[in-house]
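User: Hey, my collaborator sent me this sequence without any context and asked if I could get a structure. I don't really work with proteins. Can you help?
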Amino acid sequence: MTSRFLTLADVTEVLNISSTQAYALVRSGELPAIQVGGRGQWRVEASELEGYIQRMYAETRAKIDGGVPHD
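Assistant: No problem. I've predicted the 3D structure and written it out in structure-token form, which is a compact way to encode the shape of the chain:
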């Protein structure tokens, strides 16, 4: 069974970024996440990570196309 939620370590692996960068994305709200458990560990829903990736593709296309966003 595929897990609904990912750890920040999972996010760093998928995006190939540092743990500091992943934490910054979550803390800024750019990548929606929740805190769970007594230690408040961050979890990112897999669908939210996919949505973030799609938004980044759209932003990149818009920059390349001179600011014209695509659907």
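In plain terms: The radius of gyration is 14 Å. You can pass these tokens on to your collaborator as they are.
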